[in-house]
Design a protein that fits this description.
The structure holds two protein chains of two kinds. By secondary structure, chain A is of the alpha/beta class. In chain A, 38% of the residues lie in helices and 16% in strands. The chains are: A alpha/beta, B mainly alpha.
Chain lengths: 339, 365
């Protein structure tokens, strides 16, 4: 009887075994299985998080959807794998996911020794300081001797240490393991300042018992270009991910939104005609359908729409475009010509 | 003698100060200087803590409002639960299909309740469970009989916690018994293999096993082959729990007197018969309390899968809390899932006590 039980258990467990994916080129494997497997944050509001209905939402999530729209013409042909910070690069290296959209900072060592290729940055972040106004400080340079709440073991902690040392200031780090507890400690007045990525600070300030008591200092002490990543070995796949993000930026620059994209198909502007595939060529070059960029804009939106929907002024994060504005508006978002 | 007199004599009552509530209080709370001081201190402590707690829990709390009302309320914000109950319980499972895990859990509870009675432990119960598990798997996974297929990556919340812990226990128990028998075997190869396994697994924390299964293991697999995340965590939990059960069962085996083994051998029973009919029934009975201790802690340990980003009950709760709308209300949310964990663990230990009583495990034979 026990033996039968074991057999049943083995059968039941075998149902969990994933079908072995086709080895080799990522793009071929993705096309063969019919969906894109995207690694996302396990719970970062505005970037990658499941809402109360279990639907994934966020800037990174929409980036993954854009890739699916480009490859399959259907933004819903995508599956999300929530990953922790430790797991994310292994999951990509081992082929568990096809593309990593998990607010990962592009660095030299990650590009080289981890064997990753980062694509177009989808969010330019930087580390800053949130302080209580009671402190009477207007610049991070005046934070000498301050106690600072910080998450342990992250680059955030190192950046802060570097910053204080290079400016000849002393600081007392208050290290707390989880973000909600860290915020609570800060609001309870256990530290003068809290340091994290500025995109996070805005959200933390928004949920403060009294947001007006807190302010974000103007100094940005680190560069954090958050970019989607793919593994080495399939340049075509990298191009596709790269240009999926760029297509969203280019669409905003050309004034194409998810609402007017159908009218834009009739546009006489050769740049728009090429972009939307009315004049053919771009799709073939990438190995995709000529409508790939049209599908991204139609189903996901341009970069401005995606930004506003997930992290913009009307969301709890309420972030300004800042560095993430188009280059024409003084930001860093700049797409090469689509020809 | 008059009958009335007898009745009157019987009705002479002890002094008021010795009976009733006052008597009880005097006897139990104020029977000495030291105890009186303790009582007063305790009462003062309760008076200081209980009313504010009750006010926070019930009177000033909000139950079904949005998050805005929570910021102004003085008490607990139970709205964080009522607004997100479906996500906390079922997580990423498709929203309009959540009746399926709900029925699966109800079925599981019904099956557990049915098998509570030991008189129902017959061969038919095995088939009932096999059918029940099949139906539960079908409800969760779908893909047959017109049920929509739901990817295992979307299994989350309470069903995932129950899946990991129940399969973890059910598979770890027989494995643990085998390991215990192996460790007591006279065959050196088997013995050393079991010893190495048990000591190695017990020498590392579960967290490191989970990390191994989720981060290192995939790197050793051939390119393109991936094994489901849930399965990897499940296997790590089974291997871990089995090593602990093995040691407990070994303790039970050692407690069986030599005479029992010899008696079984003199009846001409071979090794499997001896173990199955004579030794194991006694040994396993002795070790019910420590076994249940391990199973309870294994159940709670499943919450560690949070660190490999599996959406179990704890992770879905944390996910709700990372939404800026609900960010400050971690106490309420954690109290809620602590309550769920308590119900599960308490019913396990409760049942084990019932089983001990029925089997007379505490008695000496």
């Amino acid at each position: 009887m026990k033996r039968i039980g074991l057999c049943v258990a083995a059968l039941a467990l075998s149902a969990f075994l994933a079908m072995p994916a086709v080895a080799g080129e990522t793009f071929d494997a993705v096309k063969a299985k019919g969906f894109v497997q995207v690694g996302v944050n396990q719970g970062l509001f505005g970037f990658g998080m499941a809402d109360d209905k279990g639907t994934w939402r966020g800037l990174d999530v929409d980036t993954g959807r854009a890739v699916a729209a480009a490859v399959f013409g259907d933004a819903s042909k995508v599956k999300f794998t929530p990953l922790t910070a430790v797991q994310r690069f292994t999951a990509l290296q081992s082929g568990e996911i096809d593309v990593l959209c998990r607010n990962a900072t592009r660095t030299l060592s990650r590009e080289t020794s981890l064997g990753l290729n980062f694509c177009q940055t989808n969010y330019y972040d930087g580390q800053g300081f949130l302080i209580t106004k009671k402190l009477g400080v207007n610049s991070a340079k005046e934070l000498d001797g301050a106690t600072v709440c910080v998450l342990p073991g992250t680059t955030t902690e190192l950046n802060a240490a570097d910053y204080f040392r290079s400016n000849g200031m002393k600081w007392k780090p208050v290290v707390i393991e989880s973000t909600p507890e860290l915020n609570k400690a800060f609001f309870a007045g256990r530290c003068d300042s809290l340091t994290s990525d500025i995109s996070q600070l805005a959200g933390i300030r928004a949920v403060a018992p009294n947001p007006d008591d807190y302010m974000i200092l103007p100094e940005v002490i680190s560069k954090e270009p958050l970019s989607p990543a793919v593994r080495h070995g399939d340049d075509q796949w990298m191009d596709i991910v790269d240009f999926s993000v760029l297509a969203m930026i280019n669409a905003e620059e050309l004034g194409i939104t998810s609402e007017n994209v159908d009218e834009m198909l009739k546009s006489k502007d050769p740049k728009i005609q090429r972009f939307l595939g009315v004049t053919e060529g771009n799709g073939k070059a990438l190995g995709l359908d000529e409508k790939w960029a049209y599908n991204i804009v139609k189903q996901v939106g341009n970069y401005g729409e995606v930004f506003e929907r997930n992290v913009g002024a009307d969301t709890p994060l309420g972030l300004e475009r800042g560095l993430n504005a188009l280059w024409t508006d003084g930001g860093l978002m700049y797409a090469p010509p689509f020809k | 003698m008059d009958e009335r007199d007898v009745a009157d004599m019987d009705e002479i009552k002890p002094p008021k100060s010795q009976t009733g509530i006052i008597g009880w209080i005097r006897q139990n709370l104020f029977n000495g200087t030291f105890n009186s001081i303790l009582t007063v201190i305790t009462l003062f402590f309760l008076w200081k803590t209980v009313p504010p707690l009750i006010r926070w829990f019930f009177i000033d709390s909000v139950w079904t409002t949005g998050s805005e009302a929570c910021y102004t309320a003085d008490g607990a914000c139970w709205s964080v639960i009522s607004n997100n109950i479906r996500f906390i319980l079922f997580g990423l499972y498709p929203h309009d299909l959540q009746w399926r895990p709900l029925i699966a859990i109800a079925l599981l509870v019904a099956l557990l309740a049915y098998s509570r009675d030991r008189r129902r432990w017959r061969r038919s119960l095995f088939y009932i469970w096999a059918t029940g598990l099949f139906v539960m798997g079908l409800l969760m996974k779908g893909g047959l009989f017109g049920l929509e297929n739901v990817d295992t990556t979307r299994w989350s919340g309470l069903p995932l916690t129950l899946l990991l812990s129940i399969f973890g226990m059910v598979a770890a128990y027989p494995l643990g018994v085998l390991l215990a028998l192996g460790r007591r075997s006279r065959m050196p190869a088997i013995k050393s293999l079991c010893v190495v396994y048990i000591e190695m697994i017990r020498g590392v924390p579960l967290i490191s096993l989970l990390f191994m299964s989720s981060i290192m293991f995939p790197l050793f697999l051939p390119e393109g082959l991936t094994i489901n995340k849930i399965l990897r965590a499940q296997i790590a939990i089974i291997l871990f729990t089995a090593a602990y059960i093995a040691e407990v069962v070994r303790g039970g085996l050692q407690a069986i007197p030599r005479g029992q083994y010899e008696a079984a051998e003199s009846l001409g029973l071979n090794f499997p018969q001896k173990m199955r009919l004579i030794v194991l029934p006694q040994a396993l009975k002795i070790v019910i309390p420590p076994t249940v201790g391990i199973l309870v802690s294994a159940f709670k340990d499943t919450s560690l899968v949070v660190i490999i980003a599996l959406y179990d009950l704890l992770k879905t709760t944390q996910s709700v809390l990372s939404n800026p709308k609900w960010m400050g209300f971690s106490s309420e949310a954690y109290i809620f899932i602590a309550f769920i964990y308590f119900i599960c663990c308490f019913s396990m230990s409760n049942y084990s006590r019932k089983l001990e009583r029925e089997l007379g495990a505490g008695e000496r034979h």
